[in-house]
Design brief:
The chain is an alpha+beta fold and 189 residues long. Among the domains are: 50 residues; 56 residues, no CATH class. It has 6 helices and 5 strands. The chain starts with a helix and ends with a strand.
């Protein structure tokens, strides 16, 4: 087991959260034929304190820092993960200034002229109402419910010459989106 200790220590320095089972798998690929218990004890001794692990105060089992209960004895553990730092007013003002400057840097040159059509599937009335509520005040977005009940009929000898030549119904991609998601978004001309 001693010949593998330097390599195990290196792996633990590179990734302190590496599990004992993964380390055992790696050393077995390198030729280790010993037992698991002795190897896990070696890994436990090589782990650096504060590397994402803590001990249960009741049964002394080695657990992850984020563990809330011991998986061995069931003891509820105190949280040792530090709380995120609270930013002061000056730091928040600086973040706001940076965000506004970035917004000005990447702002569009002119108004958005594209118009969108949001189509809700006929069986998804709740989506239709949601989109109507969210996009109701935006003039460039129109929300409609799909009204088509059946596919378009075709004549046996083809359409008459005075009819439109192009099918203006929804494309296959829009139909697929309606089936998969219950809605589709189309850019209008």
């Amino acid at each position: 087991m001693a010949p593998y200790a330097p390599q195990v220590a290196k792996w633990l320095r590179e990734d302190p959260n590496l599990s004992g089972a993964e380390i055992l798998r790696r050393v077995r690929l390198a030729g280790y034929r010993g037992g698991k218990s002795a190897f896990y004890e070696l890994v436990r001794q090589l782990r650096v304190p504060g590397s994402g692990y803590k001990r249960c105060p009741h049964c002394r089992a080695l657990l992850r820092d984020i563990a809330e209960t011991c998986r061995h004895c069931g003891l509820s553990l105190p949280v040792t993960v530090p709380h995120p730092r609270v930013l002061g007013a000056a730091a928040l003002q600086e973040i706001r200034r940076e965000t506004e400057a970035a917004g000005r840097r990447f702002a569009l040159a002119g108004p958005v002229t594209e118009r969108y059509l949001v189509i809700a599937a006929p069986d998804r009335q709740e989506l239709y109402e949601y989109f109507k509520q969210k996009f109701g005040g935006i003039s460039t977005i129109e929300v409609v419910g799909e009204r088509r009940a059946v596919e378009r009929r075709t004549l046996a000898n083809g359409p008459s010459p005075d009819r439109r030549r192009q099918d203006r119904r929804v494309s296959a991609a829009v139909a697929a989106d309606l089936r998969a998601f219950g809605f589709a978004i189309v850019i209008r001309d």
